[in-house]
């Protein structure tokens, strides 16, 4: 009878978390801006898996929208057992040419939003003695890559600390660190797949990333690096 709330569930990894958690019998709360995409996914998942799926359309960069999501997460009458902080977007790597307000929005969505949603989730999860928080970071968090790598590095460091502190109390926090994964991410950032300078074999499928990460989440790991090739790459980078 678990309920999972997933941000950025309208596409890519977030939609895949929704599919795989629904397949395991979890009820869902889907969060993103694109209400139609969330409704379509919700209809499919309700029919296929017989789970309850609520749609919470919100722009997490708008304080009033974000506050609605925080209230839903903290609602003691409808406990959220799994929080997936996944919403994100990319910017061109040329930091010096990027609009500084875009950079601040990028920082907010990748750092402030997961911090606030985690803060909203923890009191209830700790009181109940169980919960799972999944922070979708990136292998870029281990390697300098403009402000994106810096944001994801924050998420990895925070997840490591939080898992050590709250894990023994039944609430695990896992930073999931995918490599290049086929989603809408790169196209939305103006970088069509293939223009990142990475070979075809470096691309991962969202379904594999989510499956491997959920395995690590179930084991209470602080950091999950899906796929052997990226585990190796991160080991080299270190
Ligand atoms: N793809 C990769 O290679 C890769 C690798 C490592 C890590 N990641 C991380 O994986 C996460 C998911 O990205 P993805 O690859 O699945 O990309 P995606 O397909 O572009 O999905 C991004 C999701 O974030 C949501 N989102 C963006 N801005 C939002 C806002 N202001 N408020 C609410 N939701 C918002 C989008 O929904 P709406 O547009 O409907 O709001 C969408 O559902 C990100 O944190 C990304 O950094 C991706």
Short account of what is shown:
The chain has helices at residues 12-23, 35-49, 63-74, 100-128, 146-166, 185-188, 206-218, 228-237; strands at 3-7, 27-32, 53-57, 82-85, 131-136, 171-176, 223-224. The chain is α/β, with parallel strands linked by helices and 238 residues long. It has a seven-stranded parallel beta sheet, with helices on both faces.
Structural account:
- The protein has 238 residues and is α/β, with parallel strands linked by helices.
- The chain has a single domain (3-237), classed as Rossmann fold (3-Layer(aba) Sandwich).
- Helix content is 49%, strand content 14%.
- Strands 3-2-1-4-5-6-7 form a seven-stranded parallel β-sheet, with helices on both faces.
- The structure holds NADP nicotinamide-adenine-dinucleotide phosphate (NAP).
- NADP nicotinamide-adenine-dinucleotide phosphate (NAP) binds at residues 7-14, 32-34, 37, 59-61, 86-89, 109, 136, 138, 178, 180-181, 183-185, 188.
